[in-house]
Design a protein that fits this description.
With 135 residues, the chain is mostly helical. The chain is built from six helices and no strands. The chain has helices at 3-23, 28-41, 50-69, 75-95, 112-115, 117-130. The longest helix has 21 residues, at 3-23. The chain is globular and about 40 Å long. The two termini are 16 Å apart.
Length: 135
């Protein structure tokens, strides 16, 4: 694995893994708040209970972070996992009017912290496009 690929995998991988571990065992109220926000970008999460959503989110983040950090997971697979995860986050950004300025693209003050998730999508796509050689 090239150093540039390792860096593209390690930094978001460690961040996402830490986030997922931090969400393990979150209380129902916190899970419900996250679920309500997530439903703006991914409406189907409303079909889950808050407890189910909390476990799903935590395990999903741990899985994506681990896939990025484990060197035996092919780069394209890890990149696809990151891209899919980031797509949900970016979808949220564009679905909540208060996150963007009037043009619907540039981040508002409220949206600046969430707009950074576009970087995760770009990293994921870079991994998918550059991952490994064809055999």
């Amino acid at each position: 694995m090239k150093l540039s690929t390792a860096l593209l995998r390690a930094v978001p991988g460690a961040f996402i893994l830490n986030s997922g571990i931090g969400k393990l065992g979150m209380d129902e109220e916190t899970a419900a708040g996250l679920q309500q926000m997530a439903a703006n970008g991914v409406p189907m999460v409303e079909n889950l209970t808050a407890s189910q959503f909390g476990k799903f989110l935590s395990c999903g983040e741990i899985a994506v972070g681990s896939a990025l950090l484990l060197p035996f997971v092919p780069t394209r697979i890890a990149g696809a996992a990151l891209t899919t995860f980031a797509a949900g986050l970016v979808s949220n950004y564009f679905s909540i009017d208060s996150m963007t300025k009037d043009d619907g693209i540039r981040p508002s003050e409220d949206g600046t912290a969430v707009a950074k998730d576009t970087w995760l999508a770009a990293i994921g796509l870079a991994l998918v496009l550059s991952g490994g050689s064809k055999k």
